[in-house]
Design a protein that fits this description.
The complex is a heterodimer. Chain A is of the alpha/beta class. Chain A is built from 23 helices and 18 strands. Chain A starts with 14 loop residues before the first helix and ends with a strand. The chains are: A alpha/beta, B alpha+beta.
């Protein structure tokens, strides 16, 4: 957050108010500012300053006569788990509301509220965490680490002192929780292989320390005030013209080693933007061109990269950030035909040669035309004038905002191919995968899509067909349904090339199935066996069930490739209506039309 | 005599080790395996069933090299199965070999591994290929039943059944014992081979020997023909040491309570060598095997799996107590043990002639891994062991036999075919620079597939051996054999605790160093240094090897020397293994 002075010109305050506020804010650190943001927000929610006594914010939290103790453990062989169970039992016996949580099962949102953590963790090999806790420590050490202000903790490390890094994970946890703002209320204890007595004693004295917190309410009050986004412009102000600069939090290649595919999971921060989205919405990204490609054009035309275009813009940066420099369009070819007077280009543009032009355009890019049909005396201004604006790229959002506060996730298929002796790729996808790194910011905005939405009634069953990157919105759907506790059945169908390497978000789906959120889950991997199998084949196999679900009011969603997959799925639904619903072609078509009109059959295809 | 069913019938199984209830609840090893096999959104089987698949001969594993990266990629671990064959005595025909080899190519990771129990295992078999894999090998009469799990495992016998009439007789006994002690449930045939389930009548006894409880833990049988001990017979739960009189096998000494497994930091666990109880005549061997198994079935510790092997039962009951219980089950007494002597534990390598005039070739296979190494491989560059063995198996109709030292014997080669075999060995570059040290080395599989591994083994030992070989050469020990073994964890698959020099993994790059086993495989070693890295390993071993070169007596082995020189105390049996 910028700490610059408040001016009466950019705020609704009078000059006098602004000055007084600036004085008051001058000495505050980041932590205090965060507290203040929440405090002011709470005040504003309660009405005016005058009607809200200042002291009330300090005691706003419910009296913490009772505290909930989270016994958090990371265990490889089961020893730490057993100690944690023991701690939880003791805590319960002593009247704590107690939760026993495996590090494997905890996520960032569990840290939204300040908590009280009794932590037991073992150390493996050369100072490594238990396998199941690796994700937890990545969270803790990463840029998405939760803020733990107002939390309390005590750590018991289990280890083997014959190893060099004895109880390393206990030490790391202890240090990190403190760094993240939590308060240590009991010194860390490192227990060796004969840990029983040490553990017992630790549990006893640590619980004493937590006991002492009961009734001590002040320390948790600040963080329990609602989070405010002070200074953020209203959500509606971000648009494709004025995109929000979102920080890239993570970019993960989802395909395993040896895959022919390249799909990235990208997480962006919306912190401070006030942006709001619903599952089914898309995210617009304003990309940048590949600098090596831009430089090639400049070199080919023997231009000066820093040529001033006359309006303050420089040639290279305009080509990089503002203009479409790859995709060939008919208007551009027409413009070039006129300028070069090329008979060949003119012939291609004739009405009768539309199909040939399409073939010709396929795999060719602007640079090919620049090279093969040079315009004598072409100026930088003329080039820029001939190019269209770089269009933003839309991606179906892969996250639920409620499940991931202040974040938006994308599933981006990286497009790369080779034609006419040149490696080419999608502008946005290759930019995101090759040149954008976590910590960078990229310009984004939300593109709302009213026609791809979860049923309003959470008890309505849904069928989701999302092969390849078409899976993205369904991750958002399922996260949302989990967050809302929606009771409707969920059936997901996914497909890609290979089970071992291309099963996007596999571990998340498996967890959802285990939790019962995913009622049915069918997959088709086209290249794991001699005959190719696709999602529509799975639909056909389970046609009876598909028809039953739809007859019982299920909504049907399709996302992904619009050229073939969506059509094949549609044709399969026709078949199912015939086979299992006894409808003739006309009736089946009418049935599907009716489903579409009543918004029970929705598609997000590209 | 109370049998296990009677004894356990009214027990609360939850007080036993978790696996005990699992076995009883499994409907004779079926569990949910049918559903697991049909579940195509995961390459795994559910956790409880991972215990049951072992009884059917395969373990679920995952590629640990990519475990962490796949977790970040939101992919489940790269699960696959290690499939272990049941090949009593290690003997396959060349025709069987060809199919076994095809299966490795099509359904596994294109390698085979000779195990320390004289059989073959496959790695990297994905769930979707598992049924076809098993069907194909069963078609050539090789199964995987009881290759793992709480049952009698592959029965080991001498390294080459075709070497002499006596060797063959012992091999046949091993095969008969293996068949006799097989589980009787049809679960394997139903789930993996497509057999229809036939429900028996109300009085049906599915597992007359094992009962629904099976054994408390794995059970291993080995058979040796002195003076050679290439099967390392003392590491077995039950060891038969054949006694020969006037050129005939007349019977065997019966030894019980061997086993390697232990756990770091838990001195109540220890490796142990089998104790000889007595002698029985040949006609009683199968009966003795069955009754030893029953004594363990009914007396083994079912509360604690780390204390459930027969070796602990023997130490709990006492040797005399165990013998009494056994004689009670047998209905007759064991005779006084006969004299025997072992000389070595190694295999005969290169060409040698059998009793009947046919030839045999002992092929050294480092760590038992049968594969084709690419020309740029850091180890064994260009060696095409898999293709070479395939070509050999196509060139004749003899046998291909696995040894407990993880080597291969190309067996029953007619004189006139020797040249062809020699040419193929050369063409596929199947052998190179085998020093006596390397020849007597064993490494277990460890990373990346074994879920128990704490440190590298198979992928690391060849490089470490290069370095120790260099020290040996400089010390003037180039032609001296030393038994050296490495495992990635203390469970002991590579029999590290019997080695003259043993390494047991503690963490990546770190090992405990053990010294003082003997060359003939009748003495355990003892820990000499804990948790050391390669630099320290070489620093510790170098002066010891120089001293050995200098001070050894005529014919004295390294393992005996370190004890005589006071470097390490001798271990007498499992119970003093941890005494320093």
């Amino acid at each position: 957050m910028s700490n610059g002075p408040l001016l009466d010109t950019n705020s609704p305050l009078t000059a006098d108010q602004a000055e007084r506020l600036n004085q008051a804010l001058a000495g505050l650190n980041a932590h205090q500012l965060t507290w203040l943001a929440g405090y002011v927000s709470a005040l504003s929610a309660n009405g005016t300053v005058a009607s809200a006594p200042a002291a009330s914010a300090g005691t706003a939290a419910s009296p913490a006569a009772e505290i909930t103790l989270t016994v958090l453990y990371g265990s490889q062989t089961g020893n730490a788990e057993r100690v944690a169970e023991q701690a939880a039992e003791h805590a319960k016996a002593r009247g704590f509301t107690t939760r026993l949580v495996d590090m494997a099962d905890i996520s960032k949102k569990d840290f939204k509220e300040p908590g009280h953590y009794l932590i037991v963790v073992s150390t493996q090999g050369e100072g490594e965490p238990p396998d199941t806790a690796e994700g937890f420590y990545e969270l803790l050490d990463g840029r998405k680490a939760p803020k733990l202000d107002g939390s309390h903790f005590a750590v018991l490390g289990l280890g083997d002192s014959s190893y060099e890094f004895f109880c390393e994970m206990g030490k790391r946890t202890d240090k990190r929780f403190a760094e993240l703002g939590a308060q240590r209320i009991h010194d860390r204890v490192d227990a060796d292989v004969d840990y029983d007595d040490t553990a017992e004693q630790f549990i006893d004295t640590a619980l004493n320390a937590f006991d002492a917190l009961k009734g001590d309410t002040g320390s948790t009050a600040a963080a329990s005030a609602p989070q405010a986004v002070a200074g953020a412009p209203a959500a509606t102000t971000w648009s494709r013209k004025h995109p929000f600069q979102a920080e890239v939090l993570e970019s993960i290649q989802l395909n395993g080693r040896g895959s022919a595919k390249e799909t990235h999971h990208i997480e962006l921060s919306l912190e401070g933007s006030g942006l709001d989205y619903q599952p089914g919405d898309a995210l617009g990204i304003v990309p940048q061109n590949d600098p090596s490609y831009v430089d090639e054009i400049i070199e080919l035309l023997e231009f000066n990269a820093d040529h001033d275009l006359g309006d303050g813009r420089l040639l290279r940066s305009a080509l990089l950030q503002e203009l479409e420099v790859t995709t060939l369009t008919r208007p551009l070819v027409k413009h070039w035909a006129e300028q070069t007077d090329s008979a060949e280009l003119k012939r291609l543009l004739e009405e009768d040669n539309r199909e040939e032009l399409k073939q010709w355009l396929y795999g060719r890019q602007i640079i090919d035309v620049l090279r093969d049909y040079p315009i004598k005396g072409l100026t930088p201004q003329a080039l820029v004038g001939a190019l269209r604006k770089l269009p933003p790229r839309l991606y179906s959002i892969a996250s639920s905002l409620e499940a991931n506060p202040d974040e938006v996730h994308l599933t981006v298929g990286i497009v790369r191919y080779e034609t006419h002796g040149r490696a080419r790729g999608g502008v946005t996808s290759t930019w995101l995968s090759d040149r954008v790194k976590p910590g960078d910011t990229i310009p984004i905005y939300i593109d709302h899509n009213k026609n791809f939405k979860l049923p309003e009634d959470g008890s309505t069953p849904i069928i989701m067909v999302g092969p390849g990157t078409g899976i993205a919105p369904f991750r958002a759907f399922l996260q949302q349904r989990e967050e809302e506790g929606a009771t409707g059945d969920n059936w997901l169908l996914f497909g890609d090339q290979h089970f071992n390497t291309d099963f996007l978000y596999q571990s998340e789906w498996l967890k959802m199935r285990e939790q019962g959120l995913l009622t049915r889950f069918d997959v088709a991997f086209s290249r794991d066996q001699a005959e190719k199998v696709y999602v529509q084949d799975r639909l056909r196999e389970h046609g009876q069930a598909v028809f039953e679900w739809l007859s019982q009011g299920a909504h049907f969603y399709v996302c992904g490739d619009g050229d073939r997959m969506a059509n094949d799925v549609h044709a399969t639904l026709m078949e199912i209506a015939h086979t299992h619903g006894g409808m003739d072609e006309e009736a089946a078509a009418a049935w599907l039309r009716e489903l579409q009109q009543s918004k029970r059959y929705q598609r997000d295809v590209y | 005599m109370t049998d296990i069913i009677t004894r356990l019938r009214d027990e609360d199984l939850t007080t036993y080790a978790a696996n005990e209830k699992l076995k009883v609840d499994s409907d004779y090893l079926r569990g949910h395996l049918q559903e697991d096999m049909a579940d195509d959104v995961t390459g795994a089987v559910r956790e409880a069933d991972t215990q049951l698949t072992k009884f059917h001969g395969f373990y679920m594993q995952d590629d640990r090299d990519v475990r962490s990266e796949r977790r970040q990629q939101k992919l489940e671990p790269l699960y696959s199965f290690m499939v272990r064959c049941r090949i009593p005595g290690g003997r396959l025909s060349a025709a069987q070999w060809r199919v076994i080899d095809d299966v490795a190519t099509h359904y596994a990771n294109n390698t085979l591994r000779v195990t320390t129990r004289q059989t073959l295992q496959y790695h990297g078999v994905f769930k979707r290929n598992l049924r076809q894999h098993l069907k194909t090998i069963n078609d050539v009469m090789v199964d995987t039943i009881a290759a793992c799990g709480d049952v009698n495992r592959n029965v080991t016998s001498t390294a080459n059944p075709n070497r002499s009439r006596l060797h063959y007789e012992l091999y046949e006994l091993a095969a008969r014992i293996s068949d006799h002690l097989l589980p009787r449930t049809r679960a394997y045939h139903e789930i993996f081979l497509g057999e229809e389930r036939v429900h028996g009548g109300p009085g049906e006894v599915v597992e007359p020997l094992y009962t629904q409880h099976y054994l408390p833990r794995k059970f291993k049988i080995g058979m040796a023909l002195p003076p050679h001990n290439e099967v390392d017979v003392h590491i077995n739960d039950l060891a038969f040491i054949a006694i020969v009189e006037d050129g005939e096998i007349i019977g065997a000494n019966v030894a019980v309570g061997g086993g390697m497994g232990s756990t770091h930091g838990e001195p109540e666990t220890y490796p142990r060598i089998a104790t000889v109880l007595g002698y029985v005549s040949k006609d009683k061997l199968i009966d003795v095997a069955e009754k030893v198994l029953m004594v363990q079935r009914d007396n083994g510790d079912r509360h604690n799996r780390k204390h459930a092997r027969l070796k602990y039962t023997v130490d709990t009951m006492g040797v005399d107590g165990f013998r009494k219980a056994l004689e009670n089950y047998l209905g007759y007494a064991l005779e006084e043990q006969r004299a025997y002597r072992f000389e070595d534990t190694g295999d005969t390598l290169g060409w040698y002639q059998g009793e009947d005039g046919l030839w045999h070739y002992g092929l050294f296979v480092e760590n038992g891994r049968i594969k084709d190494y690419p020309d740029n491989s850091p180890i064994h560059a260009g060696m095409q062991i898999k293709s070479g063995l395939r070509a050999i198996a196509e060139s004749f109709d003899g046998d291909i036999v696995m040894s407990c030292n993880q080597n291969i014997i190309i067996s029953n080669v007619p004189e006139q075919h020797k040249a062809t075999i020699d040419a193929l060995l050369a063409k596929y570059r199947m052998e190179k620079n085998i020093t006596p040290l390397r020849q007597h080395s064993i490494a277990c599989v460890a990373f990346p597939t074994c879920g128990l591994a704490m440190a590298e083994s198979e992928r690391y030992l060849p490089t470490l051996l290069d370095k120790i070989d260099a020290v040996m050469r400089d010390a003037g020990l180039a032609n001296t054999p030393i038994v050296l073994r490495m495992t990635g964890c203390p469970n002991g698959c590579g029999r590290p605790f019997m080695a003259e020099i043993g390494f047991v993994g503690k963490a990546i790059g770190r090992y405990n160093l053990y010294l003082g086993g003997n060359f003939e495989g009748t003495r355990l070693n003892k820990m000499y240094r804990e948790n050391i890295d390669e630099e320290t390993i070489l620093k510790e071993l170098t002066p010891l090897l120089y001293r050995y070169a200098e001070e050894r007596n005529e014919g004295e082995y390294f393992g005996d020397f370190v004890i005589r020189a006071g470097v390490i105390k001798a271990t007498h049996n499992g119970l003093d293994f941890h005494d320093q």
